[in-house]
Specification:
With 399 residues, the protein is an alpha/beta fold. It has a single domain, classed as Alpha-Beta Barrel (TIM Barrel), CATH 3.20.20.140. It has 18 helices and ten strands. The strands form two sheets. Strands 3-5-6-7-8-9-10 form a seven-stranded parallel β-sheet. The radius of gyration is 20 Å and the shape is globular. It binds adenine and zinc ion (ZN). Zinc ion binds next to loops.
Length: 399
């Protein structure tokens, strides 16, 4: 199991707002003179208790009030990249939901400038690639969604794609069919949350009506076996977030999570963290918890990590280099047999590399990495100035 923790990984489903750690929440509240009902990180953590998606969203949205300036969004994004890199996430496609900010008077440009600058600086400093996805909130109107698209036009070449999040029940994907068609006309890739709180039919709508490239969560697709077969045939990726699903009671316990069954049904299952401090773990935390509860084998872990790079919005050359690095990590574990549980002499194939069209990650971050092992450990001046990123030991857990 330990080899997967230090193996190269992609993260395709994480909300930047959902990476707001209690320390940063309190720090930003102080910096921006926002009063909160908590004064210590223990009090914040104690408030991070919820049983359902709507319960969670209430706590989550209340905390967003501390994010006010472009620098705040920069610090949030940069800190996520640093933390993800410690799990050896080399490619990240985080999402930001501008409506959660513009609705409370924050300028769209402040959000985008902060996020895009941090992605560019952070990816460069940390030896990563990535790009941002704009997440629409499904409880708001179609008109509001079109306004987001209009605002984003100056940034259109720096945005990877459009997503859809928020309370799923009673907000079917179909409501946003025209918006997603317009996003595709902008040349963007598309993703949508579906089949988390909502039924399998929402997953089908996301795929058939919105035409998404990936489904966020999607785990309730299992309620419709014909849909599972279709997702497998078309290799539509699911960005699964096990700790999120257990916290929000999509599954009562990790042992009953269907990730392994979906993988064996031939679905392109990937591993992601969603809103890590709220759900108790970043990417490696999700690998660890799922592997322990479901008894995932090294080959299954390899397949999941490989799916992450196959499902990423990146160009073929970059995909090939990531797949090769992942295969090398697996092979090294097999050779040493330390923590791999593997069979000596078994070799690992980086697998077929698929061609894809559409925008590719790096547009708002780093387009191309020079080397898979050349990460610098020093934060940019802007990140260091914030006080949220320490200048040393950024990559202490990565060798
Ligand atoms: N926004 C942040 N996390 C979310 C989740 N798990 N589902 C829907 N919307 C979200
Ligand atoms: Zn999510």
């Amino acid at each position: 199991m330990s080899w997967i923790l230090s193996a190269p990984k992609a993260e395709l489903h994480v909300h930047l707002e959902g990476t707001l750690e209690p320390e940063m929440l309190l720090g930003l509240a102080a910096r921006n003179h926002v009063s909160l009902p908590y004064t210590t990180t223990d009090e914040v953590r104690a408030a991070f208790r919820f049983d359902t998606l709507p319960d969670f969203l209430e706590v989550y949205w209340a905390g967003l009030r501390v994010l006010r300036t472009s620098q705040d969004f920069y610090d949030l994004t940069y800190a996520y990249l640093v933390r993800a890199r410690q799990d050896n996430v080399l490619h990240a496609e985080p999402c930001i939901s501008p409506q959660g900010h513009t609705q409370r008077g924050i300028a769209f440009d402040a959000v985008m400038e902060g996020v895009l600058s941090a992605l560019a600086d952070g990816c460069r400093a940390l030896g990563m690639t990535g790009g941002v996805i704009l997440g629409l909130q499904r409880h708001r109107s179609e008109e509001d969604a079109f306004a987001v698209l209009e605002h984003s036009k100056p940034y259109r070449d720096k945005i990877l794609g459009l997503g859809l999040g928020g309370p799923e029940r009673d907000h079917p994907p179909t409501m946003f069919a025209r918006v997603f068609a317009a996003a595709r006309d902008l040349g963007w890739r598309t993703v949508a949350h579906a089949g988390e709180e909502g039924p399998a039919s929402y997953v089908a709508e996301a795929v058939d009506v919105l035409g998404v490239d990936r489904v966020d969560h999607g785990v309730r697709c299992e309620e419709d076996p014909a849909l599972v077969r279709r997702l497998a045939e078309r290799q539509i990726p699911l960005t699964v977030c096990p700790l999120s699903n257990v916290t929000l009671k999509v599954f009562p316990r990790m042992e009953s999570h269907n990730l392994r069954r979906l993988l064996h049904a031939g679905l392109r299952v990937t591993m992601n963290s969603d809103d890590p401090p709220y759900f108790g773990g970043y990417v490696n935390g999700n690998y660890t918890a799922a592997a322990a509860a479901l008894g995932l084998t090294p080959d299954e872990l390899f397949a999941i990590a490989r799916n992450g790079f196959l499902a990423a919005f990146i160009h073929d050359e970059l995909r090939a280099s990531y797949l090769q690095a992942l295969a090398a990590a697996r092979q090294a574990a097999l050779n040493s047999r330390v923590g791999s549980g593997g069979t000596p002499g078994v070799s690992v194939d980086a697998g077929r590399v698929e061609r894809d069209g559409g925008p590719q990650a790096g547009v708002g971050g780093c387009r191309r990495r020079i080397s898979l092992s050349s990460a610098g450990a020093e934060p940019t001046e802007r990140a260091a100035r914030s006080g949220f990123v320490q200048p040393t030991n950024l990559l202490s857990s990565f060798s």
